[in-house]
């Protein structure tokens, strides 16, 4: 049997090397670096591995304006069959409105066995789009999925990370699975060869202009504030210098018995 | 003031401590309004007593075999039908893996406002305002519901102090009806692979934690040795738990514990934000890492760039055995 997957991919702010709060005039500064949402990349890799093993198709979708085609092209380079851009500005959408747009696209594509997306919580924005999407489509869903343990016979078993370990959740298909961070250490595949990429560069990315199922954003951003950063007096300790290590220990353990 | 609902997550008869924090937050936000604790599961009716004792004015419980083990859709559907008969208001969840997932699912079903993993919550009149640290915890973003109706939020560990149980505070729990058809109960938790809680990371004053950089299970012995010498608890990143070097109850970070010890010694931990959110409020942080550019050094008071298999024995030599 083949497994037909739709993967939701997003271009997000790259917050890894921020030194200061990226604010300007009470709004997020323009021109911040962006990257392929890492957990979405895991979702993509999960879909591609399912395709390698079971056959089927992988379609990547994103909501965005023209420049978001970059993440879709990246998906083509990594081996998806089809890409779709859904017209819209993700910065104006909350997770619900984003999910509503994707739900429209899934319908337009004729459904899927699995819809995969990153769980993405750490930096908050557009976190847990998966459960919103599953509720709109009224299908089963599992979040924080580290691996798909089994798939077949119209069902999947997802390995879900929880606070003190794992749970294996069986869901009938179609289902929405939100993929977690685990695969990050387990590198996603490299893009295809330069020659293949050049060919794909020419490929037209179809655009959907769908009216969303559901509604407008239910949550709005009311403002931004800079978080005062903890000023850390940082000391470099030379591991070869015994007295430096000793004084570090003395300072660390002061007051501890 | 508005009435507020709080989701009480119960695992193995134990109420999730962030649920108790959410309960006391709700008490302070509700003013003279009522706070209702809501719990779903199988065989959980006994927990009602504790919820009353921790300050709930009303306790509503769906106790049904079909809710044994958390599966999003049946939980969502049960609450969705029950909420339809209540006046819309604020519904708080613990920002656990379960709580955030359920809050988002309900918001999805009801087209309602939703803010996940919030660090602060306040009321602006009778409407809530939530704040969450974003952009590597450099920006505090405020969220408000775009209009009336339900507002869902999951709150992070540390949002409020859980109220101690008060004896004598009691009441009669209401029952939430459960009526799910077969197509909804087809999904189920097949198997759990869950550690029993054997460590108390939250109350530990010193934690020695190891990450993927520790390299091998044998090397992890060094972390344990250092912890023993310092009378400390042993913590770990998810990578360590996944490698099977330690059970999951030692995990610190996004899907593990949030800790605030006096001293945190990070060994072979690069400091991905998923780990940092769980330990960045430690009093003093010392980090040992071979990679001088590891993000953990940005929040460390003491930076030791070096191979931990070489550095830890040196430290052990300096400590009384």
Write up what this structure looks like.
The complex is a heterodimer of chains A (about 260) and B (about 325). Chain A has about 260 residues and is an alpha/beta fold. Helix content of chain A is about 25%, strand content about 30%. Chain A has helices spanning about 40-55, 70-80, 95-110, 130-135, 195-200, 240-255; strands at about 5-10, 10-15, 25, 25-30, 35, 60-65, 80-85, 115-120, 140-150, 155-160, 165-170, 175-180, 205-210, 220-225, 235. In chain A, α3 (about 95-110) crosses α4. The model of chain A has no long low-confidence stretch (mean pLDDT about 85). Chain B has helices spanning about 15-30, 45-55, 70-85, 95-110, 180-185, 215-230, 240, 275, 310-320; strands at about 5, 10, 15, 35-40, 60-65, 90-95, 115-120, 120-125, 125-135, 140-145, 150-155, 175, 190-195, 205-210, 235, 265, 285-290, 300-305. In chain B, α6 runs parallel beside α9 (about 310-320). In chain B, the strands form four sheets. In chain B, strands 7-11-6-1-4-5-12 form a seven-stranded parallel beta sheet, sandwiched between helices. A five-stranded parallel beta sheet of chain B has the order 15-14-16-17-18. The interface between A and B is large, with 85 and 97 residues. β15 (about 235) of chain A pairs parallel with β18 (about 300-305) of chain B.
């Amino acid at each position: 049997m083949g497994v037909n997957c739709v993967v939701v991919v997003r271009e997000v702010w790259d917050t890894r090397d921020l030194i200061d709060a990226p604010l300007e005039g009470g709004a997020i500064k323009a021109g911040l670096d962006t990257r392929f949402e890492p957990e979405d990349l895991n979702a993509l890799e999960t879909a591609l591995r399912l395709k390698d093993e079971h056959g089927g198709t992988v379609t990547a979708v994103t909501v965005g304006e023209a420049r978001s085609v970059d993440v879709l092209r990246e998906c083509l380079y990594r081996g998806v069959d089809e890409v779709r851009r859904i017209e819209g500005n993700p910065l104006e959408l909350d997770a619900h409105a984003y999910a509503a747009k994707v739900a429209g696209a899934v319908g337009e594509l004729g459904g899927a066995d699995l819809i995969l997306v990153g769980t993405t919580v750490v930096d908050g924005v557009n976190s847990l789009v998966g459960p919103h999407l599953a509720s709109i489509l009224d299908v089963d869903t599992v979040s924080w999925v580290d691996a798909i343990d089994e798939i077949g016979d119209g069902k999947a078993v997802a390995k879900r990370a929880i606070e003190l370990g794992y749970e294996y959740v069986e869901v009938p298909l179609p289902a929405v699975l939100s993929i977690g961070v685990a695969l990050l250490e387990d590198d996603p595949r490299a893009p295809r060869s330069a020659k293949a990429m050049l060919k794909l560069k020419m490929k037209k990315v179809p655009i959907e202009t769908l009216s969303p199922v559901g509604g407008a954003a239910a949550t709005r951003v009311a403002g931004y504030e800079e978080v005062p950063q903890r000023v850390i007096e940082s000391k470099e300790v030379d591991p070869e210098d015994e007295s430096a290590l000793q004084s570090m220990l003395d300072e660390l353990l002061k007051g501890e018995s | 003031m508005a009435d507020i609902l709080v989701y009480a997550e119960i695992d193995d008869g134990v109420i999730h401590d962030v649920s108790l924090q959410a309960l006391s937050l709700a008490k302070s936000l509700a003013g003279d309004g009522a706070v209702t604790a809501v719990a779903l599961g199988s065989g959980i009716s006994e927990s009602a007593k504790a919820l009353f004792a921790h300050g709930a004015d009303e306790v509503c419980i769906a106790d049904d075999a079909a809710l044994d083990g958390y599966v999003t859709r049946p939980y969502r559907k049960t609450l969705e039908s029950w909420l339809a008969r209540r006046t819309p208001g604020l519904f708080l969840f613990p920002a656990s893996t379960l709580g955030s997932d359920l809050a988002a699912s309900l918001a999805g079903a009801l087209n309602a406002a939703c803010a996940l993993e919030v660090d602060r919550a306040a009321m602006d009149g009778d409407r809530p305002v939530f704040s969450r640290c974003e952009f590597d915890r450099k920006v505090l973003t405020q969220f408000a519901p775009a209009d009336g109706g339900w507002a869902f939020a999951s709150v992070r560990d540390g949002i409020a102090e859980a109220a101690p149980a008060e004896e004598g505070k009691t009441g009669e729990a209401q029952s939430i009806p459960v009526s799910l058809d077969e197509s909804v109960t087809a999904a189920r938790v097949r198997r759990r692979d869950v550690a029993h809680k054997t460590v108390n990371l939250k109350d530990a004053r010193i934690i020695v934690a190891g990450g993927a950089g520790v390299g091998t299970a044998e090397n992890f012995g060094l972390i344990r040795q250092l912890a023993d010498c310092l009378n400390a608890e042993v913590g770990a990143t998810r990578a360590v738990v996944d490698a099977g070097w330690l059970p999951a109850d030692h995990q610190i970070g996004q899907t593990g514990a949030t800790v605030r010890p006096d001293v945190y010694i990070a060994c072979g931990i690069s400091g991905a934000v998923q780990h940092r959110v769980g330990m960045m409020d430690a009093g003093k942080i010392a980090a040992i890492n071979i990679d001088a550019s590891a993000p953990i050094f940005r929040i460390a008071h003491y930076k030791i760039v070096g191979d931990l298999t070489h550095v830890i024995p040196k430290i052990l030599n300096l400590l009384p055995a």
